[in-house]
Amino acid sequence: MGAITLNAVEKWFGSVQVIKGVDLEIADGEFVIFVGPSGCGKSTLLRLISGLEDISRGSLTIDGKDVTAEPPSGRGLAMVFQSYALYPHMTVRENMGFGLKTAGAPKKEIAEKVNEAARVLKLEPLLDRRPKDLSGGQRQRVAIGRSIVRQPTAFLFDEPLSNLDAALRVEMRFEIAKLHQRLDATMIYVTHDQVEAMTLADKIVVLQAGRIEQVGTPRELYEKPANLFVAQFIGSPK
Ligand code: ADP
Ligand code: MG
């Protein structure tokens, strides 16, 4: 479960249109990456999918159900941001279980789901630590773990690695690729890093000024860019 369809989606902030008629089909289990220059609308598009922003025109379906007017909590998605705001006074275990706890889940269920997520992310040895005693990469994994316990239909990542140093970014890139394989979940991932896009994506969506320039596999974009913009963007070092 996790197919997502955008139909002629537009977003206006007042009189300014920032998303200009986006049609996109994301298959269940697909790893889709949004790339494009700063300000082109990547984060806005992700926020429209998550429900953090309202769609001005057009519609959104998840697994065939129209969720255009559905609040974020009704969409079954998990949003992972670059600023992994963990609660400093809580342990890793408590941080990961907090969402379920506030949703009123029974203790036993919380413990089981936290343990399962910790196993998948290899966080078991760290469960009793607090965020200040973790490395940047470990904190990022806890942030991802926190979303896994909610068992989302799809994960939405907004530049999750941009605060990490270069070596850790490469390591976390592999972690996320492995996670995608293990969970077999739909992932939509925003980055301005072409290498990240080319190595992680099943499908890359190239955006410019609120429009889709091209959608394709990394290979298709590399070998048959639709226009000069895509060619330059995919080909540029960063
Ligand atoms: P990206 O993530 O690709 O850098 P954004 O989606 O953040 O781009 O922004 C796209 C455009 O929408 C930018 O011009 C930005 O200034 C504008 N924008 C984003 N959020 C708001 C908002 N809440 N109010 C007004 N304009 C916004
Ligand atoms: Mg952004």
From TrEMBL:
Belongs to the ABC transporter superfamily. Keywords: ATP-binding, Nucleotide-binding, Transport. Residues 4-234 form the ABC transporter domain. This is ABC transporter ATP-binding protein. It is found in: Cell inner membrane. GO terms for molecular function: ABC-type maltose transporter activity; ATP binding; ATP hydrolysis activity. It comes from Acuticoccus sediminis. GO terms for cellular component: ATP-binding cassette (ABC) transporter complex, substrate-binding subunit-containing; maltose transport complex. The keyword Glycosyltransferase does not apply. Its main location: membrane. The chain holds residues 1 to 238 of 351 of the full protein. It is a peripheral membrane protein. Transmembrane segments: none annotated. The keyword Nucleotide-binding applies.
